[in-house]
Amino acid sequence: MTEFNILVATSKHIEHAEEISQLIELSAAARGTGIAKRSIAYIRNKIEEGKAVIAISEKGDFAGFCYIESWGEKFAANSGLIISEKFRKMGLAMRVKRKAFELSREKFPNAKLFGLTTSLAVMKINSELGYRPVTFSELTDDEQFWKGCQSCVNYDILTRTNRKHCLCTGMLYDPVEKYKHQRKKFQDYKEKYGQWLKTKADFLLKKFRKNNT
Ligand SMILES: CC(C)(COP(=O)(O)OP(=O)(O)OC[C@H]1O[C@@H](n2cnc3c(N)ncnc32)[C@H](O)[C@@H]1OP(=O)(O)O)[C@@H](O)C(=O)NCCC(=O)NCCS
What we know:
- By secondary structure, the protein is an alpha+beta fold.
- It has one domain: Gcn5-related N-acetyltransferase (GNAT) (Aminopeptidase, 3-Layer(aba) Sandwich), CATH 3.40.630.
- The protein is built from seven helices and seven strands, in the order E-H-H-E-E-E-H-E-H-E-H-H-E-H.
């Protein structure tokens, strides 16, 4: 089985920028979305900023890519996820996206992470990472982000519905909500553990009394 190195991209990976840009364009055309052309310069810039994750096969071939976009400190997204065709369906996208997710959490610890997608694979990956489906109203209202939809063949649906609905599903990871959820889980666990300790203490006390009367 092929081994992959999944790492934060550095200047030595800039040589792959052209291939990445072409792959993203070709796959968008194949899916018929017409969305999201990322120029070579844009990809290069993301790599130079330390905001990209790359997967390289053991033979040194490009295998996968994803980068971070951010809007102030409040919102960030992991975009441009692409896996080279010959390495698909091996769980690589999950690994690349997880690395990009960890990098985003490190760089923007307070930001909500979000994405728009029609891809079942991406929905599965996002759910695994703790994202949940949301209405578009919960996503950023930054015009720059929504401008990215202009090249999509479904853009008329988005404008017709006043940016409320389209074919994509919005997904969001909210660190505050996640923290609250984890806190609640911990409280429930603490409560149950307390009850269990009490039951055990009662049982031992009963046994002790029985043996000492
Ligand atoms: C979508 C893409 C990134 C998936 O890459 P991958 O490495 O094959 O995905 P993984 O092997 O990590 O699979 C992740 C999950 O998605 C599922 N999956 C993968 N490809 C799928 C597909 N075409 N249809 C439905 N589910 C799919 C896998 O079964 C897995 O689910 P599981 O954990 O329940 O088994 C890859 O096909 C690709 O680069 N496509 C073109 C670009 C693209 O569509 N990017 C997303 C833009 S939003």
